[in-house]
Amino acid sequence: MVGENGAGKSTLMKILAGVILPDAGTIILNGSARRFDRPGDSLAAGISMIYQELGLAGDLSVAENIFLGREPSGRLGWAVDFGAMRKRAGALFDRLGFSIDPDARVGDLSAADAQMVEIAKALAREASIIVMDEPTSSLSASEARKLLATVRSLRDRGIAVVYISHRLEEVAQVADDCVAGGRADSVEVAGAGGAGGIAFGR
Q: What is d(CA 149, CA 104) in angstroms, rounded to the nearest whole number?
């Protein structure tokens, strides 16, 4: 999803995430009309939102952030099984192809690694749709390339990624379809994976 500042990109995705209620229109998910009155409704439907300002707790570990509010319990039923939590977090990073210590303090991570923690958190929730709002805004060029490779990997595994950006060169590398907010009436992306370009028309 592309568009100039103020075009409503982030607002539309917040409606999808259940953060903002729509004034009109219908959300169709898997062929059925849906309404998300709260973020929990959207999460239960398999939608995970990664905001431009990441929603991570800097003083907690990577594993604790990934499973915050959904911590695995031990045999006693009430104590957190930190070993299982670390193991599950490590398995998620193995799927992503990243080496991040589950015990690392999130506040000490780079911006790129923090993005990976957010993606791992979405996968831990078994999200089928991941919305990323300007994910490369605070990344270096090399970090952005790694993130784009991760987006392509998620897409190839059947996870839908809504990628919000104003950087058209990034969109051309990852998008199968493209929607523009604002004054553009139509957008076409010819060939994902950098094979084509983006054409705006009226």
A: 23
